[in-house]
Amino acid sequence: MSETKLTVGIIGSGAMGNGIAQVAATAGHQVIVNDSNSAQLEKAKKNLRDSLDKLVEKNKLAKEKADSIFNSVSYSDSLSSFSSCGLVIEAIVENLEVKQKVFTDLEKIVSKDCFLASNTSSLSISSIAGACTDQSRVMGIHFFNPATIMPLVEIIAGKNSSGKIVTEIRSLIDSWGKTTVLAKDSPGFIVNRVARSFYGESILIAEEKIADYATIDWAMKEFGGFKMGPFELMDFIGNDVNYAVTVAVWQQLNCDPKFQPSVTQKNLVDAKTFGRKSGKGYYDYSPGAVMPEPKKDMVLGREIFLRVISMLINEAIDTLYLGIATRDDIDTAMTKGVNYPKGLLKWCDELGIETIAAKMKSLCEQYGAGRYRLSELLKKMVGEKKKFY
User: Fold this and answer.
1) Fewest CB atoms within 10 A around its CB: which of 74, 225, 285, 304?
2) How far is the CA of 182 from the CAs of 9, 91, 149, 290, 363, in angstroms?
3) Average pLDDT of span 334-362
4) How many helices and strands, by DSSP H and E, does the chain display?
5) Closest to 152 in 3D by CA, of 339, 344, 342, 16
């Protein structure tokens, strides 16, 4: 890749697109943000200015640097403005047909040397690239929200992506101060695949009336050290967003029961009780509302934690077994992408692989093998008495 800073194009001026634009501009690139909605572009421009001004107020950024970053970003409602770009990152709605149309149009505008990427969180990179004549230059560059703060970026090679190009782009994103991991083009990649159990298993525990939302949240924070419990986090992310990712991963994995979406969460979404942004979700956030108190039963809390963490670890092990990512990249992804207190494979060693296997076997006997089947690698490692580290 040339030492000259390439111009970066961003398609989509929402929170994610604008955040990626700020990251790229901060790294010294000229950036063009595109959106077909002119009003949204004006809003994005104001949001960028506000974001930079806040950093200046907190003495995290010099005024001159903030002005330089702001002036490095331009906004356009036409894709033709990307003709000079060396990299274009798409960050629009999670709809395969819409993305394919954008990539088809984009390929007619940019030069043959321009790299094309999608920020999709769950859709197949190979399917998106299928709309292009030259699939070798298409890959996934998945930032986490907010892109300006979250350090992780998943780099995903499609079936026909050039290995050389993927390596170059990974190096570029590293130079932006991000922590990159390489993931196979598989539904949910690393984070959104492995993390599904944090939400889904917690909802099942509540549906079974083993514990209420507040108690489950308390248990995961008290015994697991998580910064937010699963129901707090779903309300923070937005139940509409969280549910949509679950559905996408589940459908792409042929409706595997491990990833089955929850009727409880679907009902919340249908009722437009998305969480904090709507004022109500699993909890009530309206003015004057009182958060429920958890039942701080230590035995119950440990049991909740062990059930959820065993499901998470089992999926992390399966992610390794299926060759989706390396051991180190899986653990890095979960700590840097969703702020888990420990890497799950390292956590498995600490808790004891026999403990995790025993819990999974117990769940399998109680509920059936579909959702609770043990990873083949977990079985093998227990038999060989091995550890991950």
Assistant:
1) 225
2) 22, 19, 20, 43, 32
3) 97
4) 18, 8
5) 339
Q: Which value, to the nearest 10 degrees, does the dihedral of the CA atoms of residues 200, 206, 207, 208 take? A: 110
Decide: 11 and 118 in contact? Cβ < 8 Å. Answer: no
Question: Do the beta carbons of residue 191 and residue 164 sit within 8 Å?
Answer: no
Gap between the Cα atoms of 370 and 374, Å rounded: 10
DSSP 124: -
Q: Report how far apart, in Å, the C-alpha atoms of 158 and of each of 123, 212, 315, 376 are.
A: 11, 42, 22, 26
Secondary structure, 3-state, 2-24: CCCCCCEEEECCCHHHHHHHHHH
With H, G, I as helix, E, B as strand and everything else as coil, classify residue 386. Answer: coil
Tokens of 12: 């989509």
> Catalytic site residues?
121, 142, 154, 192
Which phi and psi (to 5°) does residue 88 adopt?
-125, 130
**List of residues 6+ apart from 326 with CB closer than 8 A:** 182, 320
- Four-residue CA torsion sign, 328, 329, 334, 338: positive
Q: Select from 133, 190, 183, 139 the least CA-distant residue to 165.
A: 139
d(CA 22, CA 85): 16
Cα–Cα distance list, 141 to 122, 262, 309, 324 (Å): 12, 28, 28, 15
The rounded distance, in Å, linking the Cα atoms of 25 and 237 is 26
Q: Could you tell me if 30 and 7 are in contact, meaning their C-beta atoms sit under 8 angstroms apart?
A: yes
8 A C-beta contact, residue 44 and residue 11: no
Sequence-ordered strand ranges (E) for 146-197: 152-157, 179-184
Q: Give the dihedral of Cα atoms 11, 14, 15, 20; nearest 10 deg.
A: 10
Q: Report the pLDDT value the prediction gives residue 3, as an integer from 0 to 100.
A: 53
Segment 86-101, tens digit of pLDDT: 999 999 998 999 999 9
Burial of 139 (0-12, 13-18, 19+ CB in 10 A): buried
Residue 214, token pair as written in the block = 């507040």
The per-residue pLDDT for range 40-69, each reduced to its tens digit, is 999 999 999 999 999 999 999 999 999 999
